[in-house]
Design a protein that fits this description.
- Helices cover 24% and strands 35% of the residues.
- The chain is of the alpha+beta class and 263 residues long.
- Strands 2-1-3-4 form a 4-stranded mixed β-sheet. It has a 4-stranded antiparallel β-sheet with strand order 10-7-12-13, with no helix packed on it.
- A hairpin with a 3-residue loop joins strand 3 (123-126) and strand 4.
- The longest helix has 25 residues, at 2-26.
- The chain is globular.
- Residues 1-39 have low confidence and may be disordered.
Length: 263
């Protein structure tokens, strides 16, 4: 009886081996796409804050932005922050030295896209898809997590001397889009001597010093490569500067890809 059982087992093993060998020969080994992200990968999410040193409700939002940038506590998300200081508070007792009419115009474009009655501060925008009061940490966490759950194209950045290279690949179907470069500086502070925040010292993270369109992406194009000189400015501390490159769809203002290099 023992001999019979052994014979049966050998036959079964041999048959299975033959079947497995045939299956391997007949069917190709499936390829693993490099575009598939592992469960541990963090997807970059762009968080924009529209703020002003002349606005008394803005400092709490500035602090939220700093926590989001420095602590990176939201699972699956690499939070990339930009603080745009608007200029429409500059006539109410304090001129924000970081403010720009161009940043106010960018916020106005978001107001139209989100069908808001007007711009307001502090306003936070996540990936061009969600907007809310910038000091609302719960909304920030929720919307960043929602954005991190959606795939984005890859942005590979390099910085050598004063030359920045950006290679975007894997863009999904989209309308016409623009490739932007934002230069931002952190570890900034201001002693405010007028307006609603008079007497306060305000700390700032990721203050946008410059925002430039550096490439045009036509509808349906899935990649773009750009090389650009980035010159230093004597008023900026290079050790606190970072370069943020992102792709934004023109019609919807949704961010399709983003990455950063530097501090």
């Amino acid at each position: 009886m023992k001999a019979i059982i052994i014979t049966i087992l050998i036959t079964l093993v041999g048959g299975f081996a033959a079947w497995f060998s045939k299956s391997s020969d007949d069917q190709p080994i499936p390829e693993i796409s490099p575009a598939v992200e592992t469960t541990n990968a963090r997807r970059p999410v762009l968080v924009e804050l529209f703020t002003s040193e002349g606005c008394s409700s803005c400092p709490p939002a500035d602090r939220v932005l700093t926590v989001l940038q420095n602590d990176q506590l939201i699972p699956d998300a690499e939070v990339i922050t930009l603080a745009f200081h608007v200029d429409y508070w500059d006539y109410l007792g304090w001129k924000d030295r970081f403010s720009s009419a161009a940043f106010s115009q960018r916020q106005a474009a978001y107001a139209r896209q989100f069908k808001l009655d007007s711009s307001y501060t502090p306003q936070m925008v996540v990936d061009g898809a969600f907007e809310f009061v910038g000091s609302n940490r719960a909304n920030a966490n929720k919307n960043i997590a929602a954005s991190a759950a959606k795939p984005k194209a890859a942005v590979d950045l390099g910085l050598k001397a004063n030359k920045l290279t950006a290679n975007v690949s894997g863009l999904a179907s989209h309308a016409g889009a623009t490739l932007y470069l934002a230069v931002a500086e952190s570890k900034l502070s201001t002693r405010v001597r007028g307006g609603e925040n008079s007497g306060s010292t305000l700390e700032h993270t990721s203050v946008v010093r410059d925002l430039l369109p550096i490439g045009i992406i036509k509808s349906g194009e899935n990649k773009i490569s750009v090389e650009r000189e980035v010159s230093a400015n004597k008023d900026w501390k290079s050790e606190n500067i970072k370069y943020v490159v992102f792709v934004q769809e023109n019609s919807t203002m949704k961010v399709l890809a983003v990455n950063q290099i530097g501090r």
